[in-house]
Write a structure and sequence with these properties.
single chain, Quinone Oxidoreductase, Chain A, domain 1, 2 domains, six-stranded parallel beta sheet, 15 strands, 29% helix, globular
Length: 328
């Protein structure tokens, strides 16, 4: 079997580029020649050796999203063929070749879209369509707050909320320069969650009612603040925990407002659930993708061999949009 370069968790040494076997696609899988990879927050923890669902620890092939060209398809795959330009999510994305279940693969929507641009999209599209539309149950005219809005996933959340008809969209970021840029992606209000009075800003902008939906990538100490900013019978979708996985929770305020608090993750979903998630996303957003209405800015690109430096750049939390690895 031929070998390839891949980013692997190497114990205390963290991420290392190693020579490993090229993966073989199973009956329901697609083998792709990777041209670019998108970085995600979970990659930092996995590179340090932490578990992410059933994955993690020494020997784990790192990376969650990629763009490239189909090399070979499993016997049950019907939609794709060798040579197709595709993007997708799955395990072991930081490599010269990657395999993924066909249900996580998406055609690159435009012949003019670069592999680098395409590699920014899959995780953000899948995560935020699921959070805003499927679990968030967004209805036209409703008010939405995206916490952690200057990340790639957050910026996509702003755009999806606007595209699906939200009447008011707010986003958060902790730096003035990034808050200023949120309006270019659909935010009508940009808040700073380091300021204790930020829920009042949200209430003032929504006639004292609060938002119908919070998509929360922060959690931690912001959990009770989110409750304050949400209206009666509103929804909070817990997507991420950048501000902490443990904190005090105001159960009385939660009950008083009758808020629906919903947790989401890919880590405990079955293959069939992820296929359905991707199908729904493509059905709702495919036309907008093809028209170029949904896009993410690339903060920085790194050569594949500099994957460790790319993760260090992400860990500094100074980026706006996506960080991308290129493989030529």
């Amino acid at each position: 079997m031929s070998t390839m370069k891949a980013a692997v968790q190497a114990g205390a040494q963290g991420l290392q580029i190693q020579s490993v076997d090229v993966p073989e696609p199973g009956p329901d899988e697609v083998l792709v020649k990777v041209r670019a990879c998108g970085l995600n927050r979970a990659d930092i923890g996995m590179a340090a050796g932490h578990a992410h669902g059933p994955q993690g620890g020494p020997g784990t092939r790192l990376g969650m999203e990629w763009a490239g060209e189909v090399v070979r398809c499993g016997a049950n795959v019907r939609e794709f063929k060798p040579g197709d330009r595709v993007m997708g999510s799955g395990r072991g994305a930081f490599a010269e070749y990657a395999v993924s279940d066909f249900g996580r693969v998406i055609p690159i929507p435009s012949a003019t879209m670069s592999f680098e641009q395409a590699a920014t999209l899959p995780v953000a599209l899948q995560t935020m369509h699921d959070a805003v539309v499927t679990n968030g149950r967004l209805q036209k005219g409703e008010a939405v707050l995206i916490q952690g809005a200057s990340s790639g996933v957050g910026l996509m959340g702003l755009q999806i909320a606007k595209l699906m008809g939200a009447g008011f969209v707010a986003g958060s970021s902790t730096t003035p320069a990034r808050r200023e840029r949120l309006k270019d992606f659909g935010a009508q209000l940009a808040i700073d969650t380091t300021q204790a009075d930020w829920p009042k800003q949200v209430l003032d902008a929504t006639d004292g009612q609060g938002v119908h939906l919070v998509v929360d990538q922060l959690s931690g100490a912001q959990a009770n603040q989110n409750l304050k900013a949400t209206r009666v019978l509103g929804r909070i979708v817990n997507v991420g925990r950048l501000a902490g996985t443990r904190a005090e929770f105001d159960f009385d305020l939660h009950a008083l407002k009758r808020i629906h608090y919903i947790g989401v993750t890919f880590r405990t979903r079955s293959v069939e659930e992820v296929r359905e998630l991707n199908r729904r996303m493509r059905a709702d957003l495919g036309t907008a993708l093809t028209a170029g209405q949904l896009a993410l800015p690339i903060d920085t690109t790194f050569p594949f061999d500099d994957a460790a430096q790319a993760l260090a750049h992400m860990a500094r939390n100074a980026h706006f949009g996506k960080i991308v690895l290129t493989l030529g």
